[in-house]
Amino acid sequence: MADPLDPDAALMLRAKQGERGAFEELVIRHQQAVINFIYRSVPDLAEAEDLAQNAFVQAWKARQRYQPSAKFTTWLFTIARNLTLNELRRRSRHDLDSIDAPVAGDEAQSARQFEDVGSQSAADNLLRTEIEQRVAEAVASLPETQRTAISLCQDEETSYEDIAKVLGCSLSATKSIIFRARETLKERLKPYLQTGEWDNRPSATFSKPR
Known about the structure:
This protein is an all-alpha fold. It is 69% helix and 0% strand. It has helices at 7-16, 20-39, 45-61, 72-93, 105-111, 122-140, 144-156, 160-167, 171-195, 204-207. The longest helix is centred in the last third of the chain and has 25 residues, at 171-195.
């Protein structure tokens, strides 16, 4: 059951009664987080922004079905995930970008809109940017379920219970998915952290769906 004092749930219940201002407050609170979440799977900033906007549109349309049985963000990210999966299926059907295409170049840099670099030297900033890019590439290469789980862990501080609800699987299965994702990321990033060299070719172990 959602925390009765959860301000997001309270706002959504007001939105359920047709109060647009309450829903607009939810958009302000969570828009960037939803964009970041979608961007992990669809590494095109403009597309991620469009999908995030669509997620909020769908949430507004479905407001009458909202029940505060879980955190509002769990409900919202379930909608965002479903829209993302639909987009990935559409791309696959049209033989477009691989659903595991790595995040690279200007797009990866654009997604980090609020990075505070004022107190960092140019060299430190470059190193930080490169490391973040490599981590983003590694996360983007995970199978979709692992990518979704680890993204929620990293960005949203969502509980395992809520992640399980977004994924639609048991708590034990969710913990296993997150463990495998973390182990895979360690395996992928360890050579880079040791040598500074990056191999874009995933190993057979890394690319194997889980």
